[in-house]
Task: structure prediction
Amino acid sequence: MTNRTAVIEDAASAAVALDPVRARLLGALREPGSATSLAATLGLTRQKVNYHLRALEAHGLVELVEERRKGNMTERLLRATAGAFVISPQSWALVAPDPDREPDKLSAQWLLALAARLLREVARLITAAGSRRVATFAIDGEITFATAADRAAFTRELGESVRELVARHHAAEGRPHRIVVAVHAAMPPEETSP
Result:
């Protein structure tokens, strides 16, 4: 199994991957499998699985690992081309959120537009790098505020600290880097179905 995360930027490939049956197949194909084994695992007919596998293979989401002769048939073993897939907002370019179009910098919509841009840009970096690692940095944490005033004070101080740090380290020339700092209410973990 590959631990690589692939970014889907093509709208047709995104539509194929978002189909519920195909998404289940991609999850099951983290390890190689055949239409027969997948049909038994997922409770589907082999013909239905083959139909969906052909669509996934046509869009480069699964790849052939091995072909085995079984009597007068050939069993094809396939696996997902990545351990995880992320669909870039770029795949829906006409409706992709754009931070420049959202004037309220304190709104959830602006934060979502920033996150979409972050995903698009990091996806492009990963694609351009090929098998090389991409140098990035992120901080993820959780904080509990007793009051809304405490939250406002924290975000004000955080903004001032980041602006001061940027001013101290910003150079006139060199390779630019994007900084995104976000604070939003934490959500409980989603329950995953078996």
Q: What stands out?
A: The first strand starts at residue 5 and ends at 8.
